[in-house]
Design the sequence.
DNA sequence: CACAATTACATTGCATCCAATTATTTTTAT
DNA sequence: ATAAAAATAATTGGATGCAATGTAATTGTG
């Protein structure tokens, strides 16, 4: 894709240009960015059935595990800030899957709590991971390696 | 992060639940999604200097290589559609880095062409990749592996 | 205590992203 | 030749993401 190679005047292999580092094909970030969006797109039909977007889905994943969490901690789990989470949590509240209330001990803190309806959603969502798994032709070992490298990169850059 | 383990009533190791597959920590897509956004964020200060967003940057990467390309092909390179590209290309045109004109042979096709000003931008951008490289503590081999796995995954799912 | 600094969340504005629809042009099939 | 189908962008609407700013509550300091 988008491979531009130039022939050296004397030899018959690609000439390395001073701009090679700016080629799309030489970026690590680009396949990361593209892959992320393509996989989120793959989730869509399954998430549509549950009336969830991808971001709402990973938020609910945290809620299913934690039952109760405040916005700051939720943001740390998901690498998202209140600018994204505030409207998203209001939507989840509208749908009846979480409640939002201020902590009595500290009125600045907003506590998000999973509702019984939100808990029920979990049993519908549980089939999604296996449905998604089959669209990836990576071996178990490759998945492990990819997982490890992504978390290493994530740890390095935050 | 977000690790909820439950103790079996009899033994002293984490109980595997029917919902383990829904844990955030067991997802491959989540570090992909988070990592992608974190790295794009890392680019921001450098791209701000060039008055480019990340999406505009990768678009310019294609333009620097191809000089001229139509919207359909550009979309295939970047995994983006006209809904994203049309307004983005209008902004790049406003900044004077590309021109947009219909193909004479087929009026449906819009041809995007790099301008001399756009070409000049390339020499300012050329220092960005090395500036970014130092925020990743992956070895050259790990980068290679990650790169290969991401493209494999990208190939599988599109 | 007074008040400055900090913290936690909400709001605003801009730029994506994407699905769905529309408009226009070109190609295909009868 | 022409109507149907296909191809290519543009448009629209909804949901993020994120930086910057605002607001209210809490904490730290002299």
Sequence:
């Amino acid at each position: 894709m988008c491979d531009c190679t130039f022939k050296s005047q004397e030899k018959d292999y690609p000439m390395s240009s001073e701009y090679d580092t700016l080629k799309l094909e030489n970026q690590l970030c680009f396949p990361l960015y593209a892959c992320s969006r393509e996989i989120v797109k793959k989730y869509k039909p399954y998430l549509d059935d549950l009336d969830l977007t991808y971001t709402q889905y990973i938020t609910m994943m945290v809620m299913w595990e934690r039952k109760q969490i405040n916005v700051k901690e939720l943001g740390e789990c998901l690498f998202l800030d209140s600018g994204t989470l505030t409207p998203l949590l209001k939507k989840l509240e509208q749908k009846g899957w979480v409640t939002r209330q201020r902590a009595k001990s500290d009125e600045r803190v907003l506590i998000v709590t999973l509702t019984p309806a939100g808990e029920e959603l979990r049993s519908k969502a549980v089939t999604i991971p296996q449905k998604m798994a089959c669209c990836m032709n990576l071996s178990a070992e490759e998945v492990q390696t990819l997982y490890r490298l992504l978390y290493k990169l994530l740890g390095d850059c935050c």
Q: What stands out?
A: Chain A touches chain B through 62 residues (CB under 8 Å). The mean pLDDT of chain A is 90. Helices of chain A lie at 29-49, 54-66, 71-78, 82-94, 116-125, 128-133, 140-156. The CA atoms of residues 27 and 55 of chain A lie 26 Å apart.
